Amino acid sequence: MKRGRPCAILVGAAIAAACGTVEPGASPSNRAGPCDLAGPPPRDLAEGRTIGTAYRSVFADGDRCYAEIAGRDFGSLTTEIGTMTNTVAPTPGRFDFREADAVADAARRNHQDFQIHSLIWDPLDQQVWGIVPEYVRALPDAQRHRFMTDLVTKVVSRYAGRASTVTVVNEPFDQRGGLQHNAWWRSTSSDEYIVEAFRAARLAAPTMKLLLNEHSSETISDKSNALLALSKKLRDTTVEVNVDGKTERRPLLDGVGFQAHMLGGPDQQPRTEDMRANLKRFTDLGLDVRFTELDVRIPTKDGRAGAEDLQRQARVYATMAGLCRETARCTGITFWGFTDRHSWITDYPATFSGYGSANLLDADYRAKPAWDSLRSALR
Ligand code: 9MR
């Protein structure tokens, strides 16, 4: 990933010279400090909802703006990689919570909500990421299943009382709505692994909000139909827990996370009405909904986006914010990063060839048109 020199350590004219390349449509740098952004921050604009961002502690090293903006302008921090299997359980018998703790600590310092993400996930199309370490894959089915429930218990109980929300299972479906035959699925050859992961999470932290998370399910499709059916099953399954000294039964599921990795090129947007109707199917079950990984990638040439694409991107951000605002059970939005300096879209150019510039701020932390359109839509 190209990073360049952190702009935040430069001052005055040196910022303009070294951090140079202003995107067309980005706000001019008439700001007092390199990390300043005009107007009220998104975190203050959506009453009753948390407007937050994914966070990775290493990005704050030597880059003041990353930590400052994440802490000041957003209402929640979510572990971007801190609670994935390969981060918390990299080798047999060893747990590593340094990254997740760092995100939790940053959220506490900034008086923010803290959310943990993507606990049980094994992306078949990105095996190179090694999310499920080899030693876990090699376990016999029953042991791998046990490892999974123990892992959920360990992580969720560690953050009980600190994290408001956890996306317990991420991306269980393929594009046609079949269950992905990944390492976790192989333990039970059915959706039972999902039910058991949720049961372990509920028992470990009865009041934490438990979410099921998917990508490309924002509209009505075979995939979102399957997600709906599984959500209903998890909602209808209850488990006995103890809350404040009282025994009660709680459903395994509180809500559904729609990742919302959107496209901002011409004619690439789903119909808003279709997304609205889809969300309603989930909230009608009494479930919360949340956009959990929102970003909007747009066509770029040599890393730069054009003015029209930036304007269309601004409209897509506003559409998603508007959808959340009008949906009573939408708990808010998590952006999958907030600056083009650190974006998974440009981290994987082979996957997203010709696209980039997906976040609200440019690589030098200047507001893009989306920053203002988002804030207007949240008000
Ligand atoms: O943004 C994350 C990226 O930096 C990591 O390399 C990758 C693998 O650890 O995970 C990315 O986040 C993913 C998220 O957890 C689930 N949905 C898809 C996101 C992008 O792959």
UniProtKB/TrEMBL annotation:
Segments forming domain GH10: 45-377
UniProt keywords, alphabetically: Carbohydrate metabolism, Glycosidase, Hydrolase, Polysaccharide degradation, Signal, Xylan degradation
Catalytic residues of the enzyme: E293
Catalytic activity: Endohydrolysis of (1->4)-beta-D-xylosidic linkages in xylans
Keyword Hydrolase among record annotations: yes
Gene Ontology molecular-function annotations: endo-1,4-beta-xylanase activity
Primary enzyme class: hydrolase
One Gene Ontology biological process: xylan catabolic process
Domain of life according to the entry: Bacteria
InterPro entries: GH, GH10, GH10_AS, GH10_dom
Family, per entry: Belongs to the glycosyl hydrolase 10 (cellulase F) family.
Protein name: endo-1,4-beta-xylanase
